[in-house]
Amino acid sequence: MSVIGEEEVRGSGSKAIFKEISADDEDQRPTVIESLCMSCFQNGTTRLLLTKIPFFKEVIISSFTCDSCGGSNTEIQSAGKIQEKGVIYTLAVKTKQDMNREVIKSDSATTRIPELDFEIPPFTQKGSLSTVEGLIDRAVSGLEQDQALRKATAPEVAAKIEEFIEKLIKLKDVETPFTLIIDDSSGNSFVENPFAPQKDEALTVTHYKRTTQHDVQLGLKADDEEEEEEEQVEEKPGSTIEDMRNEVLQFNTNCPECNAPASTNMKLVQIPHFKEVIIMATNCDSCGHRTNEVKSGGATEKQGTKITLHITDPSDMTRDLLKSETCSILIPELEFELGMAAVGGKFTTLEGLLKDIKHLIVSKNPFTLGDSSNPDLAGKLQLFGKKIDQIIALELDAHIVLDDPAGSSYLQNVYAPDPDPEMKIEHYERTFEQNEDLGLNDMKTEGYLDGQSADR
Q1: Cα–Cα distance measured from residue 420 to residue 301, given in angstroms and rounded to the nearest whole number
Q2: Which of 111, 173, 188, 396 is least surrounded, with the fewest CB atoms within 10 Å of its CB?
């Protein structure tokens, strides 16, 4: 058996090993190898051509012929590495000219024709260099291969396959348009763009990130690596902060209104120009109750924060607002103050917060309902609700103050990173009482083991 010479593989002088495929290049001759025919077990001839497809990549084309039995086949292999991403070629075949487009289909590619619900799975055919028409002919040849046996053993199946073969053959006349999809996880398949380097309106190319299963099929990962990754996903023992940012966690709980089983979603969110927070939302399918709550995702700040906003424009109502569970709300014009535990943590807009305040003070106030209702108090609360509506409609000039001793509340600065002329942010030292409310006075973070060592 003859083999490719070393000089021929490396190339002589400055000649490139892979030249662009061309019928006019006389030096571009294939390498001939004597090889065994697997049909008649006589010696046949294999021709290898190392070439480069224009606007694509390097490939190795092989063609085998046997003079003894007349057998022949052609194959193509990528001479480059597996690409970083998979690729999907979607071709709308509308004319007979489209049937002549060159197609490189690697052995890892899946071929589909949605109109016929037809699919050739990956690794069921060798790679090939052909045309769209050639792909169809190859599919027809594969289906016809065992038809004689099927007609003898399963005539009904053979009749259905014969009917499907006729549909494939009709595609070559392009009487009606159809779609050819080649999905290759290795990224080494190719469909010709006859208008290159200009855009081809009939051809769509989409690149995608391979899954672990794709990597195992391509031999880039072992099966046990896939099993280990699946176990890690199920158990999530090593979940990082980055993983939590990209994932919504869900756990079962009970509805605070009707006590029916419900689910709570939790997500870690990075607020621009602020910090990370944990947002939790609960939906109850039984009574329709919805609630959301925000927890600070970081440490308690060294100083408290007081944010004062002068509401001057309707766009102020759309500002993002984070009210932690330790934040008090003040509206000086209404002589109104809401304690830190009244509303709880919320991530909403300024308008949403004002509506929540109105709902809490006016609608859910127990002293305005039933036998305990007081007409005078109910009238004052109704007037308070109207003033909240006037603030939302900008009919009443007002300021809103968020006073958070923990420094974990936030109001969007629409001019960020520049200062907001209508918003004032003050940082202050907490009092002993505020530290007591936050549980910081009795918290010991340094030398907390010294006392235990002394006891021992």
Answers
A1: 22
A2: 173
DSSP label of 435: H
| Contact status, residue 292 vs residue 265, Cβ threshold 8 Å | no
Query: 429, 439, 334, 428: which is closest to 388 by C-alpha?
Result: 334
The length of the chain, given as a count of residues: 456
Residue 210 has what DSSP assignment? P
Alpha helices by DSSP H, listed for 318-363, are 340-343, 350-358
Q: What is the pLDDT of residues 299-319, one digit of tens each?
A: 677 889 999 999 999 999 999
Structure tokens at 102: 């060159």
Q: What is the DSSP letter of 367?
A: G
- The Cα 223–Cα 215 span in angstroms is 10
Mean pLDDT to the nearest integer, 418-432: 90
**Is the CA virtual torsion 124, 130, 135, 138 positive or negative?**
negative
Q: Is the per-residue pLDDT at 48 higher than 60?
A: yes
The two structure tokens encoding residue 6:
């070393």
Cα–Cα distance measured from residue 256 to residue 140, given in angstroms and rounded to the nearest whole number: 64
Highest average pLDDT, of 9-13, 34-38, 227-231, 234-238, comes from: 34-38
In angstroms, the CA 405 to CA 426 distance is 11
- How far apart CA 104 and CA 61 sit, in angstroms, is 11
At residue 23, does pLDDT exceed 70? no
Phi, psi of 263 (to 5 degrees): -120, 145
Task: Decide if 275 contacts 304 (C-beta within 8 A).
Answer: no
Structure tokens at 283: 């939906």
CA distances from 113 to 92, 161, 167, 177 (A): 10, 16, 11, 11
How far is C-alpha 323 from the chain's CA centre? 30
* pLDDT score for 444: 67
Give, for 452, the enclosing helix (H) or strand (E).
helix 450-455
pLDDT for the residue numbered 93: 93
Phi first, then psi, for residue 414 (nearest 5°) are -75, -10
The band of 398, judged by pLDDT with boundaries at 50, 70 and 90, is very high
Amino acid at residue number 258? C
pLDDT of residue 247: 75
**121-130 per-residue burial string, b: 16 or more CB within 10 A, e: under 16:** ebeebebbbb
SS3 146: coil
Which of 83, 86, 91 lies closest to 184, judged by CA? 86
pLDDT over threshold 60, residue 353: yes
What does R_g of the chain's alpha carbons equal in angstroms? 36
Task: Say if residue 241 is exposed, middle or buried (CB neighbours under 10 Å; 0-12, 13-18, 19+).
Answer: exposed
Collect all residues with Cβ–Cβ distance below 8 Å to 112 and sequence separation of at least 6: 118, 119, 120, 180, 181, 182, 183
